[in-house]
Amino acid sequence: MSKINLKELYLKNKNLKLVHLFLVVFILLNIFSCNSNKVQDKVSAKGESKTPVLVIEAKKGSLANFLDIDAKVVYKITSNLGFKINGKVKNVYVSEGQQISKGQLLADLDIEAINYQIKQAYEAYNTAKSNYEQALSNYNIQKVQVDSDLAKSIIAINQAKTNVELTKTILYQAKKDFERYTILYNNGAISASNYENIKLQYQNSLTNYYNALYALEQAKENYNVAKLKKDRLQIVQNQLKAAYYNMQNLYNAYQLSLTYLNDSKLVSPVDGVVLKKNIDVGSIVSPSLVAFIVGNQKSKIIQANVSDIDAKKIPINTIAFAYFNNKKYTAKVTSIYPSLTANNTYILEAKFLEPNDLNQNDYVSLQIITLAKQGFIIPRQAIIFSENKNYIFVVKGDKAYKKEVNIILTSGKDVLVDNLEEGDLVVIDGQYFLVDGSLVNVIKK
């Protein structure tokens, strides 16, 4: 820079010397970082000093605007796992954050109490079985006797009825003979002995008839007794059924107690990761207690709350980048829907595009591209803003030339501009000491 120019700058700003001193020190430090052992402005053939400047090569590229969103990792599909029985935890084989496989043993219970319960159930079943078998034997004996008595009584009734009819017929005939012989006897046609014989036959026939009637009544009474025993046997049969059902119930209870051995082992029904462990060795559990919460690996997503304004800027299937512990993970926005709990807020969900070891509720910084354009990318510090116009200095040879550029897009410390060519050397430090055509000592970054 010429002395005249420095003087003019000095008149405009009394503190320029201080600023210049600061920038010289800064550039000297940059030169040191480039392994330069000597820092000295070169002098042109005419004796003009050269201003040291730091430059970069202009290169074409794509610059994007990002939304930076606080998000967290969640599992959309989870399984609550627990024991089906009461008991005391003997072993726990997994911890939170551990990946597990379907069929893997997670924990088991102390089976001492279970074995005692099985023994009690078996003994109760055996007792009920013995009682039933004894009752069945007694019932069968009684049934055979009752059925036999009933059958005999029916036969006796039928025989008695036949005998009644026979004695009735004989009595009828004997009565007619007696009546006829009585007339003959009264008329002196027969002897007294013949009459007495006929009379005796009639009396015997009458006696036999009454005896047959009595035998019929006795057979009927025996039948009623046998039938009463049959009816009473129905009560015994009902008691036998009750004993059978009791035996079956105790057998089912015994079989159920056997399943407790299997239920004492908690096995994962799915592949996944342990999100929450609610039990430890010695814990008392019941069927209502959730021992583990397991997340389905395939359902792991990123979830975030976004404003309705930002939600409109994000198309579905937009690529996003999640940052966690200085690691970058690629994801894709899969859905955006209104929140049910907050007004003007939307829920954003993004799916991971590659496997990762992130866990439930890990908080990540999610960057989503909302706008991307092509142009020349340079540091924002290279821009000189003046009266609604933007300038940079481009070095050609050993001179710096002022060039107006348009800012297309800004993202962080970078800007996307036009009006440059591939390979242009853009001044990023020292430009405030330059005017159009200033001699420069170029230091490439």
Question: Mind explaining what this structure looks like?
Answer:
By secondary structure, this protein is of the alpha+beta class. The chain has three domains: 3-63 and 373-444, conserved putative lor/sdh protein from methanococcus maripaludis s2 fold (Beta Barrel); 78-110 and 264-293, Beta Barrel (OB fold (Dihydrolipoamide Acetyltransferase, E2P)); 113-263, Helix Hairpins (Orthogonal Bundle), CATH 1.10.287.620. It has five helices and 22 strands. It has helices at 3-12, 16-33, 112-186, 192-263, 308-313; strands at residues 51-57, 59-75, 78-81, 87-92, 99-100, 105-109, 265-267, 272-277, 284-285, 292-295, 300-307, 319-324, 327-338, 345-352, 363-379, 384-386, 389-396, 399-405, 407-411, 414-417, 425-429, 438-444. Strands 2-11-14-13-12-15 form a six-stranded antiparallel beta barrel. A hairpin with a 2-residue loop joins strand 12 and strand 13. Helix 3 (112-186) runs antiparallel to helix 4 (192-263). It is rod-shaped, with a radius of gyration of 57 Å. The chain starts with a helix and ends with a strand.
